[in-house]
Description:
The complex is a heterodimer. Chain A is mostly beta strands.
Amino acid sequence: EVQVVESGGGLVQPGGSLRLSCAASGFTFRGHWMTWVRQAPGKGLEWVANINQDESEKYYVDSVKGRFTISRDNAKNSLYLQMNSLRAEDTAMYYCARGVRGVLPLDYWGQGTLVTVSS
Amino acid sequence: SYVLTQPPSVSVAPGQTARITCGANNIGGKTVYWYQQKAGQAPVLVVYDDSDRPSGIPERFSGSNSGNTATLTISRVEAGDEADYYCQVWDSSSDQGIFGGGTKLTVL
């Protein structure tokens, strides 16, 4: 069974850092693009970043460029999102999702991990 | 950047047909994906490549894409279809995945 499980969320002060993790199982992790999507409370989905199979391609939404870094460890079947210089507007549920083939579509999603940026 | 416009809400009676639009400049030239998100749950892919359905998605869900509008059509709507629906494309000019603002489907 394909599964992706996020962890690492929590409460952090503005300007702080947090590292999210996504543990994948049930499929050949190294064979897929992976993506982070977020959803602020009561708002819509926002694509955040994605990464290809060998980390040679990484793309980010404009609002996180220079602050967030996506990475992966294929030996550990894990995806990461390092978030620095966090702002209140980064408060959201962060989802990890698998690309079926290439960057889209996203066929398996985790249940999300909540990040709250507040003093 | 590329913007996808969805109506905030659509209401339909059970058994009727719901049509949810996703508008953008020449969206017909892009590939559109649709996701369903029920309250408190993660999104689920319901249509890919404009009009194909993943396994397990009922035939009642269909999609089309032409000109400046993509459409998700849900036939014979059921109470269990009540959810938020999002369209998505890959914008190759900015190398970003773009979601529409979402449409809340209410089953009357």
